[in-house]
Design brief:
It is built from five helices and four strands. By secondary structure, the chain is of the alpha/beta class. A four-stranded parallel beta sheet has the order 1-2-3-4. The chain is globular and about 35 Å long. The two termini are 26 Å apart.
Length: 118
C-alpha cells in the first residue's frame, strides 16, 4: 500500500527555529510508512535562502529514504525561483489539475506535524 501524506507548509515551519521539529516529524512519517510526501506550497509566496535550504534538506531526507516527494500549489514567484536556481529539475511539481485529483491515503494521525505545518 502506498501511503500519501500531504503537508501544507506555512512560512513559519521553514524558519530556522521551527525547522528541526518539522524535520523530525517528517522522519517519523517516513518511518511509520509514508511513501509519498506532498508538500503543499499554497501558503508560501516566496522563499528566502534559509527557507530554500530547508526545502533542499527535506528533499535529501526523502531521497535517502527511497520515498517520493511531490510539490503542489507552487506560486509563480517560487516557480521562478526554482527555475533560476535549477531546482525545478530536482523536484517533482504537480500542476494544479494533478493536485486536485490526488487524495490523501494517510490513516494515522499526523501528531505535532499538523500543528506545526498549518
Amino acid at each position: 500500500m502506498r501511503v500519501i501524506v500531504k503537508i501544507v507548509l506555512s512560512p513559519e515551519v521553514l524558519e530556522t527555529s521551527q525547522f528541526p521539529h518539522f524535520y523530525k516529524e517528517i522522519e517519523r512519517l517516513i518511518a511509520s510508512g509514508g511513501k509519498i510526501l506532498m508538500l503543499d506550497f499554497s501558503k508560501i509566496n516566496f522563499l528566502k535562502n534559509p527557507e530554500l535550504m530547508s526545502v533542499v534538506a527535506i528533499v535529501k531526507l526523502v531521497r535517502d529514504s527511497a520515498c517520493i516527494l511531490l510539490i503542489s500549489a507552487m506560486s509563480e514567484q517560487v516557480r521562478i525561483l526554482f527555475e533560476l536556481t535549477g531546482l525545478e529539475q530536482i523536484f517533482q511539481c504537480l500542476s494544479p489539475l494533478d493536485d486536485n485529483g490526488l487524495k490523501s491515503e494517510l490513516t494515522e494521525q499526523l501528531g505535532d506535524l499538523q500543528k506545526v505545518a498549518s
